[in-house]
Amino acid sequence: MMINLKRFAVHTLLLVALIALIYVPSFALISFTGKATVSENFSDTARIGSVPVSGLTRKEAKPKVQEAVTAWSKKTPLTVGTGEETLPIPTELVTFQIDESIKAASLKKGGALQVTIDEAATEEYLATQPITYTEEQIQTFKTWLVKTSEKLEESNFDPAETVAAVDPTGEVVSSVTFMTRSAAEEQMIDAMAQVDIKAGQLMNVKTYGMDPVAASFIGSKLYELFAKTPFEIVERMPHPQLPDDVTLGYDVKIDEKTDFAVRNTQAVNYQVIATKNGSDVTLELRGTPFKETVTAVLEAEKTIPYRTITRYSPTLSAGTSSDTQSGVEGKSIELYRVTKSNEGEVKRLLALDFYTATPAIVTKSSQEEAPPVVIPPAEESTDDTTDDSTNDSTTENPADNTDNATDGSTDGPTDGTTTPEQPVTPDQPTAPDTPTTGDPASPVDGEPTDGAVG
């Protein structure tokens, strides 16, 4: 049987056309029905970041997410610091991409709240902080800032808890040696055997001892230790007069009102290690080496002469004086912190210490001195006759002198006044001549013999 190919082709085309007329409208109807039943609302569990958007359309979700971001920004949710010493982080450092976040979110699960940070503003903000961040800590901070902002959380970034803050080597970055002078100072050194100073944290001397003299001495040594570091000197007061055994320029006064305190300005932890060998003590600051080289320089030391004050007192004897107060010269000196880096050298005045001179006080008597008593010298006689008469009288016979005395005759004026002659003391007294022969009771030859008396 011969097949008519022409008729077969016509019948086949008719069959295909019939099938198309039946199924094409059906597929179109099915496709239209499917589109009509697909929901454009978020599911009950959908969230944009931490903001629930259940049952909302994408258009309705946008104001809700914006409202949540605004409320979060007003709470000052982000801070940075260690312990209670925290500082706010401006939310302007981050920008929320709300439209992009909603558009990319799944209606069933939602999506992340997309956040970008201003790199330049963030690094500028970190540069103004009281602590210095390492490159690793800067990257850690940026990552933390993005993740915290995406979830609209409240959080604090503690640089001391980052991996970069842990230094297993603990290199010595500053040291000072001295000798203790008392038991109170040794007790303070024992308490400071190992002191941890976290990033941004304060260290106060009074924490380790309250004896004013001992605390002032140890505080002056800590001042010398930290002056060679980037640590901030938060509190320090010098004495009115420089104490003994304290280096000029590193004086620290600690009493019930004053203290010595420093702040760790680095983003890593450091330790103060006190090593004691008898009375010899070494204080060391250990941790990560500083990015800059820091030294302390004392300059412009001056000596101020004291003046002398004279006071008067009626209680002192006339013409006398006493030293009431000894004079002490004044002093002044400047302490500079020199920081050297790749950008050059920076010299900054850390302190200017000035000690006034103590005047010397001399107290003199205010009583007037009596005029001196002048005693005139004794007058010497110049009469030659006096000398002659004196010489004659010393050579005369003693018996004649006796007669003259008996007669009462005197040389000189006879006006009734008697001027005694100055006695003359001979070098050797003159003894009467002693007869060498005869009886002492016998009359001398040539001498008249009178009768016996009575």
UniProtKB/TrEMBL annotation:
UniProt keyword annotations, A-Z: Signal
InterPro entries membership: G5_dom (IPR011098)
Taxonomy, superkingdom: Bacteria
Residues annotated as domain G5: 290-368
Ranges of biased composition (kind: Low complexity): 368-379, 406-443
PROSITE patterns: G5 (PS51109)
Region listing for Disordered, in residue ranges: 363-454
Protein's UniProt name: G5 domain-containing protein
Source organism of the structure: Exiguobacterium undae
